[in-house]
Amino acid sequence: MNGGSRARRLPSRLTTQGTASSQGAAARRLRLRRATSGAGGVRGAQASAVDEFTAQSRLSWLRWLNSAGTRIGTSLDLERTAQELAEFCVPRLADGAAVDLLESVLHGEEGQREAGGIPIMRAMAVHAIDALTSLEPSPVGEIVDRSIYHRATLLLNRVLERRESVLISRMTEKDLARIAPTESAAEKMRETGVHSYMAVPLIARGVLLGTADFVRAGGSPPLTPTDLTLAEQLASKAAVFIDNARLYGREREHVLSLQRSLLPRATPHTPGLRVHTGYAPAFDARGVGGDWYDVVALPSGRTALVVGDVMGHGLPAAATMGRLRAVARTLMTLDIAPERVLARLDLATRDLEDDQVATCLCAVYDPADASYTLASAGHPPPLLVAPDGTPSYVPVPTGAPLGAGVIPYDPLRLPGPVGSRLVLYTDGLVKTRIPTDDVDIQLDRLRKQAAGMAPERLDDCELLASAVEGEGRFDEAVLLVAAGTRAEDIALQVWDLPAGGPAASTARKLVREQLQLWGLTELADVTELVVSELVGNALRYGGGGPGQLRLLRDERLVVEVSDTGPDLPRIQHADVCDEGGRGLQLINMLCRRWGSCRTATGKVVWAEQNIPGS
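Structure (tokenized):
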């Protein structure tokens, strides 16, 4: 009874709090519960102890793992993702961490799907507390071929071959020999007091992507199976982020490869004009695909410059860009005026099934008078940097973008003084992520950047390296810098021909004398015949007769005659009894090529010969 009375006086639940020992023992909560019989009598008491510290630590670790989703994989860059994984683990999980990825993964390939074999790795990230900075992990960025190590028992190789995690809570000398790849690395681990080690594979979608290994040293507690479980769960999360970055990088490389294959491989030699070009891809693959440029050498030393931007990104924009560039290059090769090129490009853009729109700027440089003829289809204005370094925007009349169906386009003739630079670009050069930056602010920023650059830096396209926000360039950009040379550096002569009969003889005399000065007397007979036929056609079909005679010596010899007639010449079939109709046939046989094009005042007809020994 007395015992029963004491039992009945016990409360229904009694809790007592324990204290942690100096060794860090977990705090425990003691719970007592009385046990009653079916009749309501007390039979005894039940006691239970709960490890309160373990429950709290589990919640803390779960929160830590959950935060990995916001701190790892913040970008789609492989190197940064690996570095974020290493930094996330130190010092919470380990005192030092290193991440290695398969070399194939860095090239956008899938990785190692089947177990077995030691793949070639590349060190991607290392992070450690200050006390472990003297360790000798593989230098970041270097290839790590673990198959060449003499230590065949390396534990990390087991991770690669079998895809098994490794845990050594208390390291011995034998264990150290199985962890460190070299004697020097082992000695550094001894000096820094490394006593625990674990390594886990990075596997996503059943494919091995790399490994992550961790160490603890000094007074840190040894690594435990619980730590290994946490590391495996973290590795599983991080591997998905790494694989996403791999897939993203492969997509970006595909778009970039297509983009670069559609751009000119080299800038052609153009007399009287030095042209420098550059292309800077966007960091984001979604910002790549629509920008292009082209440089076309035209007859008589003229040069066509084209810069365009398809309003879109990715593979569709790159494909559209390639088609528009092919059409634009064909039109420019025919020596069509810039405003007419844009009008025909507009028709071609409207015929595309994608219903895409593009901006474009065309310019033709004539070394005879060092001038540009420009026309714009909704494109940002070009920047003219004067010989003294003062930049100013060229007020080219801005027409509607290609594909909008609003034509015609108005040209602008612009003098290009010797020593000046004409800068053509796409809007990716000035775009920013700042929402308050309107177009005027962006253009003014570019003008100020150009004002502080020497001519040599402009020619090196250093404007492409201007400051950009975030991880990289917001949008891809194309830059084209053109600089005219001195007139005396160009072997070009232009003469005004007289009207009427003396025009042909005058042209023959001028050509022969100039070829003698150039040391090309062996071409005099053919060139005289060619110029006689061109002048004769101008007298017969050119309205007011021939206008100018132009002779250019560069990689080839080009002769050109202009007139005011609207009809372009063509080769005719002449019968045996016909007295005429064979002039263009002779030119076609004697010259490398010939052609004609319309101008604002009529047309020009030209013929080109190879120079012996050139």
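The two ends are 126 Å apart (CA to CA). The chain has four domains: 2-55, 72-253, 266-487, 491-610.
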